[in-house]
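step=predict obj=Formyl transferase N-terminal domain-containing protein n=225
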Amino acid sequence: MLYKLKPNILKTSYTLLKTQVFYYSKLRVAIIGQSTFASEVYKTLRHRGHNVVGVFTIADKGNREDPLAESAAKDNIPVFKVKSWRKDGKAVSEIVDKYKEIKADLNVLPFCSQFIPMDVINFPVHKSICYHPSILPKHRGVNSINWTLIQGDSEGGFSIFWADEGLDTGPILLQQKCTVDENETVDTIYKRFMYPNGIKAMADAVDMVANGTAPKIAQIKEGAS
């Protein structure tokens, strides 16, 4: 048997559904990092409707701001320039307190050269996700693309993973692979694949977290380096 709903009931149901979809598909995001790559991730997340509530980046180098700081400042997003998150082996409480005030749902670390305290990493309800330019667990740490080429890997790529206490050891959210050409250089593979695909993948990863579809796949021990 079919029932005809009254117009006001239909309108109410649609409004509730629309509100629920909006709530689950948008996040309050803190971006922690630096570089043009981080700036482009910032712009992409805002374009997709996520609410970037704060940007934490490195201190100015002379009179030069980091590109991430420049982009956020133009949009009147709070920018925090951090020389160091730690002092004498301990988290700097003033910085951590400022971070907590923005009440982010998720930390996004597109490219971050600083050691972030676990108090910050684990503070948001959705914790923190990071970008790393290798297929983890291979080539953890710095100069990952260099090591991909030095070791003659036929395949490269990047990983987006959940931050934990280790160095690039957290569970995998997503990975994308690419072939490594015979005459490949750090510059060519970065511009061809790591940079453009990485920006989109970071935004895709945030969408997955927002929609509850982001996996946490433990890294395998075999091949770790």
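step=describe
The chain has a mean pLDDT of 90.
step=end
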